[in-house]
Write a structure and sequence with these properties.
This protein has eight helices and no strands. Helix 6 packs antiparallel against helix 7. The protein has one domain. The chain is mainly alpha-helical and 196 residues long. It is globular and about 60 Å long.
Amino acid sequence: MIQVHPLVIFFASIFTSNMIFSNFLGMCSFTSVSKEIETAAGLGIAVTFVLAITTVLNYIVYHYILVYFGLEYLRFIIFILVIAAFVQFLEMVLEKYLENLYYSLGIFLPLITVNCAIMGVSLFMVTRNYNLVQTAFFGLGSGIGWALAIVSMAGIRSRINEDNLPLGLGGPAITLITTGIMAMAFIGFSGIVSIS
């Protein structure tokens, strides 16, 4: 097992190993939902919640069921099933108690199920051979890092006046350019903590 302190993993997954800026996982919803800060924050909180819980659930399922029965090759299917079930539960809770957020997230809420950042965190947890505590900190930190990235992008996009941009740089182009600049800024933290 990797002997890395869980707090190092936590902060590294927020900054230096951010799912968006170092692995470019979860870019679909990142670029689509980062137009308004409120919606981006809601999705960021939902993704953080899903990542924190499903990473731990997937750890338990993987190590105590799949490995025990020698079924490790089923991890992709099982991880997707765990994530899908939990997202369905979250969707029902949001629809009942936070109806405005539920409708503002629209189609992107059920798409959390196929957000590759969530699947990536579960797979990284396995390949990096984290223990349960490391996995919990990794899942929570990855969610916070993803939320920080999408809220930051929403803040920047709300300030950009696309009328003043050269032709061809509006919409997705300026979003991807801004993402690249933000990724370089986050790489600046790489001397502090790193996990791989």
